[in-house]
Amino acid sequence: MKKIAIVTGASSGLGKDFVRQLDRKYELDEIWMIARRKEKMKKLAHSLKNSKGVVIGADLSRREEINKVINKLNDEKPRVLFLVNSAGFGKIGSFIELGLDEQLDMIDLNIKALTAMTYNVLPYMSKGSKIIQIASSAAFLPQPGFNIYSATKAYVFHFSKALGIELKNKGIGVLAVCPGPVKTEFFKVASSKGKPLDWKSKFMVQSKDVVAQALKDSEQNKMESVYGVTMKLFKIVSRIIPHRMILKMFKWN
C-alpha cells in the first residue's frame, strides 16, 4: 500500500510550500497536488526530490470535480498520511458591495469543498495520519470588510477542533492552521486593488515559515497552529475583550 499526501490549493502559496516541505521531511511515495492551474503544479512536481508529484487539475468548488479525487482514491486505495486542505480564497469588500456569486463561491470552496474532501479522504487514513486544515486568524473575530471570508474560516476552525476530538481514539490528528496575513497571491485575488487592507500589510509573514510551524505543531498533536507573536496576541485579545468593543475600532468605508 503506497503512502501518500494530498494537498489542495497546491499551485501557489501555503499549498505549494506544504508540498515542498512534505517532500523534504517525510517518506512518501506520492504527493497528490490538487488545484485548477495544472501547469504550475507540473513545474512543482518536477522539482520534488523524494516523492512523486501527482498532478490533479480540479476546481474543488464543483462537486463533480471532487469526484475526480474520490474515484482515484477508490481505484488506487492508498494510505493517506497527510491531508492538507489549503484551497480557499477571500474577497475584501462589504457584504452589499461584493457580488452574491463570488460570496457563494467562497462558501463553496472554503467550507463545502474542505468538508467534502475531509469526509471522502478519511476512510483512507489510519493511526498516525494527519489532517491539516487552513483556517485563519480571521476565524477569531468577525471582520467587517472581510465578512464572509472570516465567517468561513470560523467554520474551518471550529469544525477542525471538534473533528480532532472525534478522531482522537483512531489516532488521527487534526490541526487548524490560523495564520495572519501571508505573503502569497491571496491579496491579489482578495482586493480589486491587489493589496491588503492597510493594517494587514504591516503584519505580513512568509508562507514557508507558517508551513514549517504547522508541520511541527502537527507532529506534536496540537489542535491549532498560530504563527508569530502578533497573531498569538491577537488571539488572546479576541478572547478576552468582548467582540462588540473590538468591532468599534474597525473603520470601514
UniProtKB/TrEMBL annotation:
Keywords: Oxidoreductase. The keyword Repeat does not apply. Pfam families: adh_short. InterPro entries: NAD(P)-bd_dom_sf (IPR036291), Sc_DH/Rdtase_CS (IPR020904), SDR_fam (IPR002347). Gene3D superfamilies: NAD(P)-binding Rossmann-like Domain. Belongs to the short-chain dehydrogenases/reductases (SDR) family. This is SDR family NAD(P)-dependent oxidoreductase. It comes from Defluviitalea saccharophila. The lineage of its organism: Bacteria, Bacillati, Bacillota, Clostridia, Lachnospirales.
